[in-house]
Amino acid sequence: MAQRYGTPTSGGGGDEGDFRRRRKRRGPRGGPGGGSTSRSTMRRMAPVGPPKTVMLPSILTVAELAEALGVTPIAVIKELMALRMMATINQQIDYSTAARVAEALSIPTEERVNETRRGAATMTAEDRQREANEDPEAVARPPVVTIMGHVDHGKTKLLDAIRSANVAAGEAGGITQHIGAYQVELQGRKITFLDTPGHEAFTQMRARGAQATDIAVLVVAADDGVMPTTREAIAHARAANVPLVVAINKIDRPNANVDRVKQQLAEIEVVAEDYGGDVPTVEVSALEKLGIDDLLEVILLVADLQELKANPHRPAAGVIVEGRVDGQRGVVATVLVQNGTLRLRDIVVCGATWGRVRAMNDDRGRKVRQAPPSMPVEILGLLATPEAGDMLQVVADEQEARAVAEERQVQRRIGVSPDRPLRLEELGQQIQSGRAKELRIILKADVQGSLGALQNALSRMAEEQTVQLRIIAQNTGAISESDVSLASASNAIVIGFNVRPDAAALRAANAAGIDIRFYDVIYNLVDDIQAAMKGLLEPETREVTDGYAEVRQVFRLPNRVQAAGLYVLDGRVLRNDRVRVLRSGTVLHDGTVGSLRRFKDDVREVAAGYECGVGLDGFNDFQEGDQLEFYHVERVAAS
Ligand code: GDP
Fold first, then answer.
1. 268 CB under 6 A from ligand 1?
2. Are 103 and 110 in contact (CB under 8 A)?
3. Residue 554: burial class (beta carbons within 10 Å; 0-12, 13-18, 19+)
4. Number of Cβ atoms within 10 Å of the Cβ of 363
5. Hey, which of 147, 148, 152, 193 would you mutate to test ligand 1's pocket, going by the most ligand atoms within 8 Å of its Cβ?
6. How confident is the model at residue 29 (pLDDT cuts 50, 70, 90)?
7. Which of 157, 232, 289 has most ligand 1 atoms within 8 Å of CB, for mutation?
8. Roughly how many angstroms between the first and final C-alpha of the chain, as a whole number?
9. Per residue in 397-446, pLDDT tens?
10. Long-range contacts for 456-465 (Cβ within 8 Å, ≥24 apart)?
11. CA Rg value for the chain
């Protein structure tokens, strides 16, 4: 990660930048500044000219990092605290965490690993593609395509139609195996399709740092038009900078209306080529296998524009498409080779496991001895089951494979995720210091009107250049799990205006550390973002959700007072909590609990799976099906 923002390794190369030498140059406590650790001191001490890159190992202790950077361990611990990590001097951290500490101290770093390990450990998908394009031995490779779209618009049918209609010449013999990806051929050129349709798998992979897809095919049924998931899929593809091809499906249906689909798409800024835009569209019928070759041709044209390349002469690097255990064959994994060629008997590291490739099959179940770039293969021989999105890398020998896998296991045990998403405050500080370019936002609002107003307010800020921000998705309705996964994959924050997350989204946000911020006044939102960008926004309080409940019954009491019979869905609800009443994800009321009862007894709390009765202060408008979010506000210690 540091390579992206830091100065590239300057002069001398490899050994020059080794961290022990750097320590000598700077002296044991960072040179003339003695034991001082403040950032300004660090800057004063920095040598004239671009700072030299410090080489760091994949895993190191806080003390070792301090030594490498020429600062005190306390300075490192302080920076870790700013990243919301509590660490002791002897605690192990991984390279990406160390790099962020170094970045905060304006010291460029690079991971000290040999060529093959570096690929697996730290390179992003974009880095990989860039590297492949700069490699003089790189040649064109087939594009990798994911199919996205709304449910029932024909994604699965289209995948089947493409597969059965375009088996590569001379390969018709094999029996179709569903290994998670397949290749077809058109005019002697191959195209790889990922077999799991939908943007969920796509975004999950991105969240793990893998980008397997070069082109997204957006399926829209001609009789149904643009639907919520269509919009979601567009946002996910856009956030990943993956070009779109639109397949307008079901044109065999009597009520198919291609023009209406194109108009609807244009309204959300996906403008077809014949509407003056740059998005290729193809009319198809997956059912009657019409237009399939046209679609493949367009995919190849888009691929040509991207100049996708890889070097087949290197040791392979790839990504896991799926992993499972088979009763007879043991661990089976489908690998999509992204660069290099994977060969039988290669030794590979894959996520936190490793192994030797004992057998390799293609998507027709035939044994193969090697797999060039963009080819999906099923491999046997890994010691444990990898997960979709894990990177695979060929290494020199077993010893190295074991060492890397063990490092990764430690990394996973200590729970350092390589790309911890940031909160608004930290993003603001990063943009201030030039370490991040823009603030990415996912905007959710109760109604179209507020969405428009928010958009105006935010774009005005961007125009006045008070902040660099980019709205990567916007929509009305409750904050969903899909919004959270998009935020996680794109390092974005989610802003809810008069809307709340559903229980699944909240769980996902907590697990992934995504910042969801809620507003009901536009001015406050603008104010917060501006303050964050100036580095002024300090976290003071935060909300902690205790539980969710659903209204199952409404009781009318005298004096138009209401109580609700609840079923606690998740977590627990507390007598001292605050409550929001949500109807279809929109906030109707935000207030305090008046009474909480189980069987006529006042109680302090009720756990998930139980029923209870609740009355809210100043709210008497319950309806069956309303969701209640119970929460409390906590003070956050300033870091
Ligand atoms: P998915 O949920 O997007 O994967 O959609 P499916 O591929 O499962 O298709 C949903 C339904 O639409 C199925 O009943 C398909 O047979 C039907 N379908 C898919 N493509 C076409 C098409 O081109 N024409 C017609 N008439 N029906 C289609």
1. no
2. no
3. middle
4. 27
5. 152
6. very low
7. 157
8. 24
9. 888 888 778 777 765 654 444 444 467 777 676 666 666 667 888 999 98
10. 457/522, 457/525, 457/526, 458/526, 458/529, 461/526, 461/529, 461/530
11. 27
Crossing angle between the packed helical segments 95-104 and 115-122, to the nearest 10 degrees: 80
* Residues 6 or more apart whose Cβ sits within 8 Å of residue 246: 217, 218, 220, 265, 270, 272, 279, 280, 281, 282
Q: Catalogue the E-assigned strands of 599-636.
A: 601-602, 605-607, 611-616, 627-635
Per-residue tokens: 176: 């179709």
Q: Is 62 helix (H, G, I), strand (E, B) or coil?
A: helix
Q: Whose C-alpha lies nearest to ligand 1, atom 6?
A: 154
Please state, in angstroms and rounded to a whole number, the distance separating the CA atoms of residues 88 and 72: 13
Provide the H-helix boundaries in 464-578. 481-490, 503-512, 522-533
Distance 287 CA to ligand 1 centre (A): 7
DSSP state of 604: S
Residue ranges with strand state E in 34-186: 54-56, 59-61, 92-94, 109-111, 139-140, 144-149, 181-186
Please name every residue paired with 335 in a beta bridge, in sequence order, or none if there are none: 320, 377
The pLDDT of residue 86 is 67
pLDDT tens for residues 216-249? Answer: 999 999 999 999 889 989 988 888 889 999 999 9
What is the spatial distance between Cα 174 and Cα 539, in angstroms, rounded to a whole number? 60
Dihedral sign for Cα atoms in the order 3, 349, 353, 343: positive
Q: How far apart are CA 475 and CA 51, in angstroms?
A: 44
User: What gap in Å lies between CA 417 and CA 183, rounded to an integer?
Assistant: 33
Q: Which amino acid is at 621?
A: D
For 561-582, how does the pLDDT look when each residue is reduced to its tens digit (9 = 90+)? 899 999 998 889 998 899 999 8
Burial of 274 (0-12, 13-18, 19+ CB in 10 A): exposed
